[in-house]
C-alpha cells in the first residue's frame, strides 16, 4: 500500500509520524527463499534479472574487489531485503541512494534502503566490496579454491558467496556480465562469450557475457594462466576451452577429452534438441579437487578426472547438464534427479554409442549389484534429503528410473520425452512432479506407480527395469565374466563410476 506514503495533507503526515501505517505494510524480505533443504539459501521479496560484476583480482594476495550491480524487481512491499554474501562491503546503493547495511546469520547481507520499496517495481542495487575470499567461511567451510596461479569459484550448491552478492538459489535465474581485471599474463575465464579484452597499466580486463538465464551456482570464475582454444560446433556454436598451463601429466588426457566438446554437443543435440546457449566449452584449472561441475556454457573439470587417461564420459555428463539442469533448472534442491538422473543416463547412452554396454545392461548391472539390504535402496532419488543430495543412488538409481520409463513407454515416446522436456521448460525451472506430468502427457499413460517405485520407495523394487517380464536380466556382452545369473559389469562401468568422485568426499 505505498499510496499511503504520498497521501497529502497534515493529517496524513501526522499519522505517518504517530503510527507508521505505511511502514507496517512494508516488511523485510525473508532471509531464505523457502527451500526446505537449505532454509537460509536465497532470499525473499525480490527477483533478480541481471548481475553486472566489475571486478579486479590479484592472484598473489587473493584480493578480490569490485562492484556488483543487480537489476531486480520487488515481489512484496519491502522495508529491507537480504543478499547472500561473505566479502566485506563498503557501500550499498539502492536506486541511486545510499542504503544502510549489516550482516546476519551465516551469509546474509541485510540491506535497508533509504526509502521502502513498493511491490512490483524495478530496483537497482549497487554493492561495492573487497576481501580475501579464502579467509571467509560459512557453516565452517569455504568453496573458494586457490591455485598456484589464481583461484576458482565452481561448486554446488554453494559457490557465489565468495565472489558476488546474490539471491543464491537456482529458482532465481538471471543473465550475467562478468568483467574481471587480472595482472597481464593471467586470464580470467567465466561463462558465455568473451565480449572484449583490454590492457592498461599492467592489468588485463576480460569481459564475459552469459545472455541466457543462469542459476547462481552455475556462474563460474577462474583466474590463472591458461592456454585457450577456440572452435565451433557443427551447428555453429562457438567453443571456448581453457587449460591451465601446469596440468603436468594430465594435460594430454584433459585436452583429448575436452577438445571433443563440439562433437559431443552435436551428438547430444540428437537426443536433447538444439543446444540452448550462445557458447560452449570447458576449463581445466590446476585445482586439487576431484569433481566436475556443469557451470553454464563453461564446464569445470578437475585435472584428476583425467588421471587415468581421456574421459569423454565426464564430458558427456557435464554437457548433458546444459539441457538437464542448466537450461531446465530444478525448482527446489529436492528435485536434483531432474539434473543428475539424466546426466548419468546420457553417460549410459554414450556407453551404448561407444559399444561399451547398453543402457539396459547398465541398469541391470546397477540392479543386480545392490542387494535388497544395501543402503543404496534407502535413498529416494526423487527427494533424497540434503545429506544424500549427491549420493550415488541419485545418479545410478536415478538413471535406472529413466531406463524404467523408457521400457514402460517404448523408445519412440521415450526419446520424444527426452527431446521435448528442454523445449517444454526452456530457460525455466521444473520439479520431479512436473517431469512425471510431462511424461504422462506425451505418453498418454499414468506413470504414478513407475515413478513411485523407482524414485520414492525406500526399498529395492521387486523386479529390475525390464522390457517386459521375459527379459528380467539382459544378456551380458562384455566386461567381467558373469557369475551365475548376475549380469556382467559393462565395459564402461568403471569409467562412469569414476565421474562420481564428488560423493566419496
Ligand atoms: N553436479 C556435479 C556433477 O554431477 C556434481 C557435484 C555434486 C558437485 N556436488 C558437488 C560438484 C559439489 C562440485 C561440488 O557433475
Ligand atoms: Zn551431474
Give an account of the 3D structure.
With about 500 residues, this protein is α+β, with helices and mostly antiparallel strands. It has 3 domains: about 25-220, tricorn interacting facor f3 domain (Immunoglobulin-like), CATH 2.60.40.1730; about 225-320, Neutral Protease Domain 2 (Neutral Protease, domain 2, Orthogonal Bundle), CATH 1.10.390; about 330-495, Neutral Protease Domain 2 (Neutral Protease, domain 2, Orthogonal Bundle). The chain has helices at about 10-20, 20-25, 250-260, 260-270, 310-325, 335-355, 360-370, 390-410, 410-425, 430-445, 450-455, 495-500, 500-505, and strands spanning about 45-60, 65-75, 80-85, 90-95, 95-105, 110, 120-130, 145, 150-155, 175-185, 185-190, 195-200, 205-215, 220-225, 225-230, 240-245, 280-285, 290-295, 300, 330, 430. The protein has a 10-stranded mixed sheet, with no helix packed on it. A 5-stranded mixed sheet has the order 15-16-17-19-18, covered by helices on one side. A hairpin with a 2-residue loop joins strand 4 and strand 5. Helix 5 (about 310-325) packs across helix 6 (about 335-355), helix 7 (about 360-370) crosses helix 8 (about 390-410) and helix 9 packs across helix 10. The protein is globular. The model is unreliable at about 1-15 and about 470-480 (pLDDT under 50). The protein binds tryptophan and zinc ion. Tryptophan binds next to strand 18, helix 5 and helix 6.
